[in-house]
């Protein structure tokens, strides 16, 4: 099996994909009597930042801690997919240059 065919097969087996990143934040509430006013911030709170196709900008949503692990796996799958997709493009371009 050629590297091209191998990569095509692998991309189908990656599973669920999510483009974006997870951000962990520690926040202050603004209450002067709260512990966060003394430096002990609240959190962590998790946010998923992703590309918004409608605006072309980065959008973000708050996510519960219990979905973070699964989302990290989907983000990792997406990163692998992108790397392998670019390798496929490079192989295909090289084949075209050679007239294959």
TrEMBL record:
Source domain of life: Archaea
Span of domain DUF6788: 4-72
Name the record gives this protein: DUF6788 domain-containing protein
């Amino acid at each position: 099996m050629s590297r091209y065919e191998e990569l095509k097969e692998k991309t189908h087996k990656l599973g669920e994909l999510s483009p974006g990143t997870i951000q962990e934040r520690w926040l202050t509430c603004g209450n002067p009597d709260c512990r966060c006013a003394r430096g002990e911030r609240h959190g962590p709170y998790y946010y998923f930042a992703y590309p918004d196709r409608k605006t072309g900008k980065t959008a973000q949503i708050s996510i519960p801690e219990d979905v973070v692990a699964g989302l990290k796996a989907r983000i990792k799958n997406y990163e692998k997919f992108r790397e392998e997709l670019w390798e496929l493009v490079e192989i295909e371009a090289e084949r075209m240059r050679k007239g294959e």
